Amino acid sequence: MSPAQRLATYFHVHLISDSTGETLNAITKAVCARFDNVLPIEHIYPLIRSPRQLERVLKEVDSAPGVVVHTIVDREMRVGLEEGCRRLECPCIAALDPMTAAFGRYLGASLTTRVGVQHALDNDYFNRIEALNYAIGHDDGQGGQDLEAADVILVGVSRTSKTPTSIYLAHRGVRAANVPLVPGAPLPAKLFAATRPMIVGLLVSPDRLIQIRRNRLLSLNETRESTYVDIDAVREETVRARRLFEAQGWPVIDVTRRSVEETAAAIINLLNTRTASGAVEALE
User: 3-class SS at 227?
Assistant: First the structure.
């Protein structure tokens, strides 16, 4: 049987956290993505902060043995978890320990023992909530009257990942609006009048764009042909978009082979470069 035909390997992974478990979930997905045909069956146990809760978790592990990954801070709870995993003969991994140790050696700083400290309701948390509300309210050209409040405005033809990129940026605290390029429809005047936000053009190859659009139409049970997926019309859309971006001097990101995360990272890098340049100009 060839590798492409191999059946996926399923395994249980138990994610135990004294906070929300979001960190563990992200780490596990990133690690599992490095393996072909490996699919984790995730069991998530957030806010585990007492021996009684830990006892319940270990019973769950016993009923579905697998890898145990945790971010437990409390020393006694960690010992209890590790001993329980040894008894059940399940690997127990403290996900953040290697990085924490390396940071500690470099900084010469002591560790905090407060649980859930990474999710404190600080200014960053509220900034992310505000950014998320802004992205939702300014999706696909909505709320165009308030574009000046954005950190970044994404402009592109239909299906260039404008919405998911805006939402991802919001989770990083970046206020992102997005404006679609619709054939025959004028762009809002306030887009060209905006001075505070950075405007970024998103492009994708015509072939890839048609593929994405066809999949979208199929998901809507729409089988009729239209200019939406016509190769000549799509190429014209792409050419017009590129010309617009060049004429306005907007930075352009080709998202053809980029994930949403990679596109967002590129945008954040552009924002950071712009901020750094502004700081240098201010000093001069």
Answer: coil
pLDDT digits (tens, 9 = 90+) for 103-124: 888 888 766 555 555 544 456 7
Task: Answer yes or no: do 127 and 112 share one domain.
Answer: no
Query: By residue range, what is the domain housing residue 21?
Result: 7-118
Whose structure tokens read 């960190």? 23
Which one of 52, 84, 118 terminates a domain?
Answer: 118
- How confident is the chain (284 residues) per 10-residue block, as mean pLDDT? 56 90 86 86 90 95 95 92 96 90 80 53 71 90 84 96 93 93 94 95 96 87 83 96 97 94 93 73 47
Q: How many domains does the chain have?
A: 2
Asked whether residue 60 falls in the same domain as residue 186, the answer is no
In terms of domains, do 109 and 194 share one? no
Question: Is the CA virtual torsion 258, 263, 265, 271 positive or negative?
Answer: positive
Q: How far, in Å, CA of 57 to CA of 51, rounded? A: 10
Tell me the per-residue pLDDT of 41-62, one tens digit each, with 9 for 90 and over: 989 998 899 999 999 999 999 9
Decide if 48 contacts 54 (C-beta within 8 A): yes
pTM: 0.62
β-bridge mates for residue 152, sequence order: 176, 198
Put residue 13 in one of left, alpha, beta given phi > 0 → left and psi -120 to 50 → alpha.
Answer: beta
| Residue 248 within any structural domain of the chain | yes
